[in-house]
Amino acid sequence: MKNILVTGGAGFIGSNFVRYLLEGNPDCRVINLDLLTYAGNLANLEAVQNHPRYHFVKGGICDRNLVDDLFCSYYIDTVVNFAAESHVDRSIAEPEVFLTTNIIGTQALLDIAKKYWKVHPDDKYSREFIPGVKFLQVSTDEVYGALGETGMFIETTPLAPNSPYSASKASADMIVRAYYETFGLPVNITRCSNNYGPYQFPEKLIPLMINNCQCDKSLPVYGDGRQVRDWLHVKDHCAAVYNVLAKGVAGEVYNIGGNNEKANIEIVRLILQAMGKDESLITHVQDRPGHDRRYAIDNTKITTQLGWQPSYTFEQGIAETISWYLQNSDWMKQVTSGEYCKYYDRMYTMEEKELSCQGSE
Ligand code: NAD
Ligand code: DAU
User: What's the gap in Å between 185 CA and the centre of ligand 2?
Assistant: First the structure.
């Protein structure tokens, strides 16, 4: 049986992945290490909280003593590192914690994995690791920077991150790569495009727009709304990560994407239409500084080499996602109370940011 340390397992993708493992794969035990920042929520895991093969530990990936204890107590043989500060806008406002969690935290995990998994820990020239161990770093397409009208990111596209968030993720990727090149630690890096689906914190585009629509609040579209993202259902991302865990070749990077490019304004209009609301709710606000214009993932490597394919069409996925948020209004109420209101006011001071007569649409 595999003993999988999932970090950040109380966040959006991590919690979907924990459920994916426990509901679908009988042959693993899941240890979820999460600091429960504003983005971590144990309500995301109510369905599995009493599962006999699930263990939750509150704590941070920078806490080396705690991570060391977990490796020792649970015989960890697999790490899937989702833990991160993940929101670009927050990284613009307060970059430091992004560097601490996303870079230093990743390096702490790598060090401890190396300590427990290396067959001859005192031999600096040995590259022998216990068979079957793996460190999977969950990264992002944002490390590649921005595309123009054409082209797609492949795994060898040079890294050119533009935000403090993406720079911290790119740095972590480089450290992970270095542990493979220098020590031979069996690693994979996955770089996925934008995820959507249940349990996403409403600081991100889709749940924020659904919630605002539901509350008849204005929908803050940055700039002209023509920025393009390549959307993938979170369950397809989870299946892809599992595929890389099971079949990925050590040292390799795998892009993950849904071949589903959409401009932000299209998504916003689609949500308005699905919820029966009027386009007058759209408000164009000042653009995000350094806003990447377009992302698009070429997923040829993972589809041809590992046999993964996305299963959701966007039409099906977004319809299910909107229904999920409407049916789970208590979840939304819980995460949008308290601190969220302060965050929202800080981030979206409409009177100042609203563009007069934008006219870009
Ligand atoms: P999220 O913000 O919803 O969740 C992050 C989780 O990490 C939270 O539960 C939080 O409490 C936890 N965390 C934060 N700091 C921690 C620390 N120091 N120690 C332990 N736990 C900590 O993020 P998400 O959207 O689920 O993203 C998960 C991962 O996937 C991130 O690494 C992100 O970079 C990557 N990613 C996200 C997307 C996307 O569209 N959301 C796409 C590609 C890659
Ligand atoms: O591409 C993968 C990345 O996708 C992940 O690595 C990040 O963790 C994740 O947050 C996401 O980053 P984005 O910046 O693309 O996602 P976000 O939901 O913040 O924004 C999506 C697009 O919508 C982006 O072009 C900015 C725009 N936007 C966003 C918000 C929150 C708006 O126009 N208005 C908004 O209020």
Answer: 32
Contacts of residue 170, Cβ cutoff 8 Å, sequence gap at least 6? 143, 159, 161
Class of domain 2-197+232-256: alpha beta
- Among 38, 229, 286, the mutation site with the greatest number of ligand 2 atoms within 8 A of its Cβ is 229
Residues 31 and 57: their CA atoms lie apart, in Å, by 7
| 61 pocket-lining for ligand 1 (C-beta < 6 Å) | yes
Q: Is 285 near ligand 2, meaning CB less than 6 Å away?
A: no
What sign does the dihedral 200-58-176-237 (CA atoms) show?
negative
Residue nearest ligand 2's atom 7 by CA: 86
Sequence spans of domains, the chain: 2-197+232-256
Q: Indicate which atom in ligand 2 lies nearest the CA of residue 219.
A: 36
| Chain-centroid distance, C-alpha 203 | 13
Query: Which pLDDT tens digit goes with each residue over 185-229?
Result: 999 999 999 999 999 999 999 999 999 999 999 999 999 999 999
pLDDT 10s digits, 281-332: 999 999 999 999 999 999 999 999 999 999 999 999 999 999 999 999 999 9
Q: Does 206 contact ligand 1 (Cβ within 6 A)? A: no
CA pair distance 284, 287, nearest whole angstrom: 8
